[in-house]
Design brief:
There is one protein chain. This protein starts with a helix and ends in a 6-residue tail after the last helix. The protein has one domain. The protein has three helices and no strands. It has 79 residues and is mainly α. The longest helix is centred in the N-terminal third of the chain and has 30 residues. The radius of gyration is 16 Å and the shape is flat.
Length: 79
C-alpha cells in the first residue's frame, strides 16, 4: 500500500509541475506584444521548462543518484 501512495504522489507532483510550466508559457506568450517576441519567448520558455522538468522528473522518480549521474553526463555535476 505504501508503494502505491508514493507512486501516486510522484505522479501528482509531476503532472502539477507540467501544468504549472504550461501556464507560465501561456502567460509569457500572451504578455508579449509582437509575433517575433511571442515566438522567441515561447521557444525560450519551452526549452527552459522542458530541461527543468526533465531533470525534475528524473530526480523525483529515480532519486538523487540518477540526477547527479545525468548531470555528470553533461559535465555540470556538483563535486
Amino acid at each position: 500500500m505504501k508503494n502505491i501512495s508514493i507512486i501516486l504522489l510522484k505522479t501528482v507532483v509531476t503532472i502539477s509541475l507540467i501544468l504549472l510550466a504550461t501556464g507560465f508559457t501561456v502567460i509569457g506568450f500572451l504578455l508579449s506584444s509582437t509575433l517575433v517576441i511571442k515566438y522567441f519567448v515561447l521557444g525560450m520558455l519551452s526549452m527552459f521548462i522542458a530541461g527543468f522538468l526533465g531533470m525534475l522528473v528524473v530526480y523525483t522518480w529515480k532519486g538523487k543518484e540518477a540526477w547527479i549521474a545525468s548531470l555528470k553526463e553533461f559535465g555540470k555535476a556538483p563535486n
